[in-house]
Write a structure and sequence with these properties.
The protein has about 325 residues and is mostly helical. About 60% of the residues lie in helices and about 5% in strands. The chain is built from 14 helices and 3 strands. The chain starts with 7 loop residues before the first helix and ends with a helix.
Length: about 325
């Protein structure tokens, strides 16, 4: 009998079943959320991790990248530690069953050493991506959808999604959950529920509102056929065959796929897999700091709970100041 190769999802569910049998219910729920939840480890890097891929393909570097993104997103230390404990325990489980060659200790070493984290004075990782993000954004602004209605809907949606991420600094799950009624079209604002279930005000640029309106106008017949109040429909909808005639919200995975698809279109051979929705948030905060030099304003617009998180972006601007000073005062 041929041996079944465990996938990432099957291995995770077997692990969670074991946790549920040995831990308190609230602990089991936390582990499930930290691994398979919307922002869990196994769903947060769709360019590297697929739920149906062999679990043996998992690597410590993938988890280190995940935790780097959490740090940049300003995740609370307590939550960070809890998620790290869940991933470490999952890695030990996989190693014990010889399902994957991953080490919980090596993961901790990577994080402690800052092997994948930006360090003060070494902003090259984002500096390399920033011009690429700008090119993707410019491609989105200039995009003129063509083809059949479904093709145009997808192109207009993707265009509006990229411009929205760039000009609002929204987190991907916030953008994906937006409903039509969430936007006040007169004020160009929306109230979203962000991290920690905290309400925050989002400011939309004129070009973002125009892109969204153009997309919704193309969607008008489809939305009207649902027979439900338009305001209850998602702002960014699915247009794949699986959605049928229903108007369903896109998932965070679809949001990431939009960034990668637009990246490939705009960059061609220069495409970089490190481009993610969250990198557009970095771009948003960095632009504010460059224009204002005001950490407090950047903190408020990024909706960071701790100004220390915003300070983490300042090293990029500081590096530019150092470079200019050296060029002038040689």
């Amino acid at each position: 009998m041929e041996k079944t190769i465990p996938t990432v999802e099957s291995a995770a569910r077997a692990f969670l079943k074991n946790i549920a049998a040995t831990k308190l219910p609230h602990t089991a729920r936390s582990y499930r959320s930290d691994l398979l939840g919307e922002s869990g480890f196994l769903r947060s890097l769709p360019q590297h991790i697929k739920l149906d891929m062999p679990v043996a393909n998992l690597r410590e570097e993938m988890a280190a990248q995940y935790f780097q993104d959490l740090v940049l997103a300003g995740l609370a230390p307590k939550t960070f530690k809890r998620r790290l404990a869940a991933v470490r325990r999952f890695f030990r489980y996989l190693s014990a069953l010889k399902q994957a060659s991953v080490s919980a200790d090596r993961l901790t070493e990577l994080i402690s050493a800052g092997a994948l984290s930006p360090r003060p004075g070494e902003p090259q990782r984002f500096d390399e991506l920033e011009p690429l993000i700008l090119r993707v954004f410019e491609h989105a602004v200039e995009l003129r959808p063509q083809g059949e209605l479904t093709d145009r809907l997808i192109q207009d949606r993707n265009r509006a999604f990229i411009i929205t991420l760039s000009d609002t600094g929204m987190r991907v799950h916030e953008a994906c959950k937006l409903k039509r009624s969430d936007i006040n079209w007169q004020t160009g604002r929306a109230i979203v529920i962000g991290k920690g279930s905290k309400a925050g005000v989002i400011l939309f640029s004129k070009r973002a509102l125009e892109a969204i309106k153009r997309y919704l106008a193309l969607r008008s017949q489809m939305d009207g056929a649902t027979g439900v109040p338009l305001g209850s429909l998602p702002l960014f909808a699915r247009h794949d065959p699986g959605a049928g005639k229903k108007v369903l919200a896109i998932s965070t995975q679809t949001g990431e796929s939009i960034v990668h698809e637009m990246g490939r279109q705009a960059l061609g051979a220069d495409y970089d897999e490190r481009l993610t929705c969250h990198k557009f948030r970095h771009y948003f905060v960095t632009r504010i700091l460059r224009e204002t030099g005001n950490l407090k304003i950047a903190q408020e617009m990024a909706r960071h709970a701790n100004i220390g998180t915003t300070q983490g972006y300042a090293h990029i601007v500081d590096a530019e100041i150092d470079r200019v000073h050296k060029e002038i005062f040689k």
